[in-house]
Amino acid sequence: MEESRIAAPIGSALDRFIKSKQDQFAYASGELSQLLRDIALASKVVNREVNKAGLIDIMGAMGSTNTAGDAQQKLDVLANIRFSRALMKGGEACALISEESESYVDLNNSGKYVIAIDPLDGSSNIDVNVSIGTIFSIYRRKSKEGTPIQDQDILQRGSEQVAAGYILYGSSTMLVYTTGHGVNGFTYEPTLGEYFLSHPDMKMPEDGKIYSVNEGSYNSFSQPVKEYIAYCKEKNYTGRYIGSLVADFHRNLLKGGIYIYPATAKDPNGKLRLMYECNALAFVAEQAGGKASDGKNRILDIQPTSLHQRTPFYVGSKKMVEKAESFG
Ligand code: AHG
Ligand code: MN
Ligand code: MN
Which of 3, 56, 79, 265 could staple 220 via S-S, CB 3.0–4.6 A? Predict the structure, then answer.
């Protein structure tokens, strides 16, 4: 049996785990492994900053706005800097798509990978000490290394991701990722400064009883979404909504549930961003046996036409997403 098929034991350090799985990558040159290590390292720095958010003057609004017009928090900016720097130093990535940058950022022109990132997800929860996250997608560039980046490198479908995942800064910090061979979760041990495998081969329950949607916007939901919510209530499902996509997704991944951010009157295409929020979680969900759609179409099949494109997002246990879709 090849090494990558042997289940890694619980407690394996992330670096060792990544190395043992390297032969699963289509281009097993070690660069994708290095990229994952770069992301893990940057997340440790962000984790340190998140953990002292209440202690030092890094909380509160920056007084600036990002491309979507949201107020930027200092931690949004800090996290963006930490991840960009780690990726730039690493040299494996040629371009970075980030929620915090209007256009993509050129990194190393000879790099083979394109990264899309939401450096800090759930910013409204920073200053109230509630879980937040980071979301990342990794693509192979299509154009030849060393040549200028082209639209075809940047605007790739989610189905072309070679790896994706998230970091959850919660009651413990976790890194969950997939390279298309299942999903593995690692928990951070802060005194050792290392992630250890705690959730091998994660599977999302096929069905569940938790629904996560911001019901404050109920009046502006479409009739089918309203009917699905009524169905959840009839079934006595549990409503859980943190307001940090990563945290809501992670709970539903472990326990079985559905997260919906539908079209609303204010956001007719939904609020969430296809390229650095939905695609990564859709890839993880599918790899864990779950499902992700915009209510009709598979998220991973959507051809992006712009960096900050939004999409309605239905993600979670397969049967729950199918049921929600069936309301039309
Ligand atoms: P971000 O902090 O990166 O802008 O993302 C916030 C997103 C997502 O994390 C969350 O699920 C959603 O916005 C919450 O929006 P509402 O407050 O409209 O429910
Ligand atoms: Mn976000
Ligand atoms: Mn964000």
Answer: 265
